[in-house]
C-alpha cells in the first residue's frame, strides 16, 4: 500500500500564518475524525457524535469549520504556534508543515512499533512582508480566496475514497486512532515542519501530537 | 439492479438516502442563516444523530424538504435542489447558488450499505459543511440584515441553473457510490453579482405564504437510530411520525426567508431541534404570521429616533443648546419661576440659559405645542433643592452653555461673506505696508 501524498501551497503575510494553517489542518482533521468508539459485546461498536463549529479568521477574510473539540484545537494550535515561531516573526521565509496520518504496526520485542503512513498532507507556506495597509487589505481578501480553493482541493481528494484503514477491533483501536481525546477520535496523526532559512537549508522538527 | 440487494439493505439504503437528503438541506440552509453554527461533540452516541454528526434539525426546513420530496427519494433524474437567493429591501432578487443532490446510473454492487455507504455519506456531509463556507454566498449571508435577506427554495425534479447568470461556476462536493446508483452533491454558484431588477408586479404578495398557512408544524421525530456498525443491524427506537404530505408542491416551493436578523418585532431565529422549541423555531425562522410583506416593510422602514421633531418643526438654538429644549416654549414659562434656573441674586445678570433662550428672538419658536409632553425639571443628582445661587444645577447649565466668544457674536457674524471678501484686499494692503514690522517681530522670535 502506497502512502497518498498531497501538497498545498499558500502565500501569506506573517500575521496570517496561524490562521491559514489552522484553517487547512482543521479542515483535513474534520474529515479524518470520527466520534468516540464504544465497543460492545458481539464485536460491535457504536460511535459518538462529532460536533462542528464555525471559526472566523481575524486577519483573513475567511471562515472555516472545525471539529468541536477544544482538546484537539489546543494540540493543533500548539503545533502551529511552534511552526510560526520557527518561521520567525515578520520576516520573509518559506516553510512546510506536514500532517501525516499513520497506522501502528506492532512489532515483537526488541523492535519498536512501526509507524506506517497512509496519507500525508504537506502545506507549503511562503511568508511575505507587505509595505502598507492597502496591500494588507488586498492580501486579506486574496488569501481568503486562496484558502477557499485549498478547501475545495482537500475535499476533492478526500472524496476520491482511496485507502482508509480498516475499522479496528477493540484491541487494535490504538493502532489506528488517537483515543486520547475525550470527545472525538481522529486517525493517528503527527505534525512535522520544515523551515527553509535564508541560506536555503532545511531543518525538520517533529511535533509529536500523540 | 435492486434485485441484488437484500430487502434489509434496500430498506436501509432508502432510509439513508432520505435522511442524507434531509441533513444536506439542513446544512445548506443553516450555513445561510447568517450566524455561526456550533454544535457539541458527544462521546456517547444518543441514537438520534444521523451519520454521527451533530446537525440540528430546524423543523420548518425539514417540513419544506419533505414537502418538496413529496414521499419520493432523490434518484436518477429526480434531483433534490436547494436554491439560495438574495432579496434586497427594494424587492430586487438574485439567485446566488443552487445545490444539487443527484444520482447517476453508475452502481457499486459490492459496496456495503450499512457500513461503507453510511460512513461515506457522513464524510460527504462533513465536506458539505466545509464547502458551504467557501462559496461567495456565505459571506453575503453573514452580512444580511436590513439591506437584503437570503432566501432558500427547495425543489425536486429537474435542476434549474438558468437563474445563475452566465459563467456560473460549479464545485463538486463529493460522491457516494451505492448499489442503486452514485449520489453526487455539487454546487453551482453565480460569479457575476451585478444586480438586475427582477421585481415583478404582485410577486411580493405571494412570495411568503406557506408557513403561516400550514398549521401543521413538523412533528416528525427521527427516532430511528442509525444501525450499529460491524454488520449488526440497529433496532428502530421509535416510529417516525410523518406529517401528512401535501401532493404536488415539490416543484413550486416558494422562497423561504433565511435570516436570523430580527426585524423590530421579531423573535430572533434560534435553530433548535428540541421538541418544545419546535413551534417557536418554525415561526421565527420563517416569516411571522400576519402580514409577511408588512413585516418586511417594517424591517426596511427607516426608524425615527425618539424625540426627533417631524420635518417642518423649527429646531431652535435653544433646542440645540439645552437638552429637551423642544419643550422650552412651555418650559420657558416654568423656568421664569424656577428658582433653580433663575436664582434671585443673579437676576441682574441673566443666566446663559436665559440669554440663549432670548437670543433666538422668539420664545415660542420651539416648535408646535408640546402639550403632550411634560417639562422635565433639570435637577442634577444629589443637588439641594434650595435657593442658593450657583447651585450645582445652575453651575452645570452655565458651563454647559458658555457665552459665545466675542469674535463669534451675532454682530460680527452678521457680516456676510461677500463683505468679508471685499474687505480682504484692503486688509492685505495694510499688512503689506507693515511687512517690515512683521519681519522684525519674527526675527525677535528666532
UniProtKB/TrEMBL annotation, chain A:
Its main location: other. It comes from the Eukaryota. GO terms for biological process: autophagosome assembly. It is found in: Preautophagosomal structure. The keyword DNA-binding does not apply. The keyword GTP-binding does not apply. GO terms for cellular component: Atg1/ULK1 kinase complex; phagophore assembly site. One of its GO terms (molecular function) is protein kinase binding. Keywords: Autophagy. Belongs to the ATG101 family. This is Autophagy-related protein 101.
UniProtKB/TrEMBL annotation, chain B:
Keywords: Autophagy, Cytoplasm. The keyword Metal-binding does not apply. It is found in: Cytoplasm, Cytosol; Preautophagosomal structure. One of its GO terms (biological process) is piecemeal microautophagy of the nucleus. Residues 218-292, 336-370 are annotated as: Disordered. Residues 218-228, 344-362 have a biased composition (Polar residues). GO terms for cellular component: Atg1/ULK1 kinase complex; cytosol; phagophore assembly site. It comes from the Eukaryota. Residues 88-195 form the Autophagy-related protein 13 N-terminal domain. InterPro entries: ATG13 (IPR040182), Atg13_N (IPR018731), HORMA_dom_sf (IPR036570). Belongs to the ATG13 family. Metazoan subfamily. PANTHER family: AUTOPHAGY-RELATED PROTEIN 13 (PTHR13430:SF4), PTHR13430. This is Autophagy-related protein 13.
Amino acid at each position: 500500500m502506497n502512502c497518498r501524498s498531497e501538497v498545498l501551497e499558500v502565500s501569506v503575510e506573517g500575521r496570517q500564518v496561524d490562521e491559514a494553517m489552522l484553517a487547512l489542518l482543521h479542515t483535513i482533521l474534520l474529515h479524518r475524525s470520527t466520534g468516540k468508539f464504544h465497543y460492545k459485546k458481539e464485536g460491535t461498536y457504536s460511535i459518538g457524535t462529532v460536533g462542528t463549529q464555525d471559526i472566523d479568521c481575524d486577519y483573513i477574510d475567511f471562515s472555516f469549520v472545525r471539529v468541536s473539540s477544544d482538546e484537539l484545537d489546543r494540540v493543533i494550535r500548539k503545533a502551529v504556534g511552534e511552526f510560526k515561531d520557527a518561521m520567525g516573526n515578520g520576516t520573509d521565509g518559506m516553510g512546510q508543515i506536514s500532517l501525516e496520518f499513520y497506522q501502528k504496526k506492532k512489532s515483537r520485542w526488541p523492535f519498536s512499533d512501526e509507524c506506517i503512513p497512509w496519507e500525508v498532507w504537506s502545506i507549503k507556506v511562503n511568508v511575505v512582508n507587505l509595505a502598507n495597509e492597502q496591500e494588507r487589505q488586498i492580501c486579506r481578501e486574496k488569501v481568503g480566496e486562496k484558502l477557499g480553493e485549498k478547501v475545495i482541493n482537500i475535499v476533492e481528494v478526500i472524496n476520491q475514497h482511496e485507502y482508509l484503514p480498516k475499522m479496528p477491533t477493540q484491541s487494535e483501536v490504538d493502532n489506528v486512532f488517537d483515543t486520547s481525546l475525550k470527545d472525538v477520535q481522529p486517525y493517528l496523526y503527527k505534525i512535522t515542519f520544515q523551515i527553509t532559512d535564508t541560506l536555503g537549508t532545511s531543518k525538520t522538527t517533529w511535533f509529536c501530537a500523540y | 439492479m435492486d434485485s441484488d440487494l437484500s430487502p434489509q439493505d434496500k430498506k436501509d439504503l432508502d432510509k439513508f438516502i432520505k435522511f442524507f437528503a434531509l441533513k444536506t438541506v439542513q446544512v445548506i440552509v443553516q450555513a445561510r442563516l447568517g450566524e455561526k453554527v456550533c454544535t457539541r461533540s458527544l462521546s456517547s452516541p444518543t441514537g438520534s444523530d444521523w451519520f454521527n454528526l451533530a446537525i440540528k434539525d430546524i423543523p420548518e426546513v425539514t417540513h419544506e424538504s419533505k414537502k418538496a420530496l413529496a414521499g419520493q427519494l432523490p434518484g436518477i433524474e429526480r434531483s433534490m435542489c436547494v436554491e439560495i437567493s438574495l432579496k434586497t429591501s427594494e424587492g430586487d432578487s438574485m439567485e446566488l447558488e443552487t445545490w444539487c443532490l443527484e444520482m447517476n446510473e453508475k452502481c457499486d454492487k459490492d459496496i456495503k450499505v450499512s457500513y461503507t455507504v453510511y460512513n461515506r455519506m457522513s464524510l460527504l456531509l462533513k465536506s458539505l459543511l466545509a464547502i458551504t463556507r467557501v462559496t461567495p454566498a456565505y459571506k453575503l449571508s453573514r452580512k444580511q440584515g436590513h439591506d437584503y435577506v437570503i432566501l432558500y427554495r427547495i425543489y425536486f425534479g429537474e435542476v434549474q441553473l438558468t437563474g445563475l447568470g452566465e459563467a456560473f461556476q460549479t464545485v463538486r462536493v463529493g460522491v457516494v457510490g451505492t448499489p442503486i446508483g452514485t449520489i453526487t452533491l455539487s454546487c453551482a454558484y453565480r460569479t457575476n453579482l451585478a444586480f438586475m431588477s427582477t421585481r415583478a408586479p404582485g410577486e411580493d404578495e405571494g412570495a411568503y405564504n406557506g408557513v403561516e398557512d400550514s398549521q401543521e408544524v413538523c412533528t416528525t421525530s427521527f427516532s430511528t437510530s442509525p444501525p450499529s456498525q460491524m454488520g449488526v443491524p440497529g433496532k428502530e427506537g421509535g416510529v417516525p411520525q410523518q406529517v401528512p404530505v401535501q401532493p404536488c408542491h415539490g416543484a413550486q416551493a416558494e422562497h423561504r426567508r433565511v435570516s436570523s436578523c430580527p426585524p423590530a418585532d421579531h423573535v430572533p431565529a434560534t435553530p433548535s431541534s428540541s421538541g418544545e422549541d419546535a413551534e417557536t423555531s418554525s415561526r421565527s425562522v420563517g416569516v411571522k404570521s400576519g402580514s409577511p410583506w408588512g413585516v418586511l416593510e417594517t424591517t426596511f422602514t427607516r426608524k425615527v429616533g425618539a424625540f426627533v421633531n417631524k420635518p417642518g418643526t423649527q429646531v431652535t438654538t435653544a433646542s440645540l443648546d439645552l437638552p429637551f429644549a423642544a419643550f422650552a416654549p412651555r418650559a420657558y414659562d416654568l423656568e421664569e419661576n424656577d428658582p433653580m434656573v433663575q436664582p434671585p441674586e443673579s437676576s441682574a445678570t441673566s443666566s446663559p440659559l436665559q440669554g440663549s433662550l432670548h437670543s433666538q428672538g422668539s420664545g415660542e419658536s420651539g416648535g408646535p405645542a408640546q402639550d403632550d409632553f411634560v417639562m422635565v425639571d433639570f435637577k442634577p443628582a444629589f443637588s439641594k433643592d434650595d435657593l442658593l445661587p450657583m447651585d450645582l444645577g445652575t453651575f452645570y447649565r452655565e458651563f454647559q452653555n458658555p457665552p459665545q466668544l466675542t469674535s463669534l457674536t451675532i454682530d460680527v457674524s452678521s457680516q456676510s461673506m461677500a463683505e468679508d471678501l471685499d474687505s480682504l484686499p484692503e486688509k492685505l494692503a495694510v499688512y503689506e505696508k507693515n511687512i517690515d514690522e512683521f519681519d522684525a517681530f519674527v526675527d525677535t522670535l528666532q
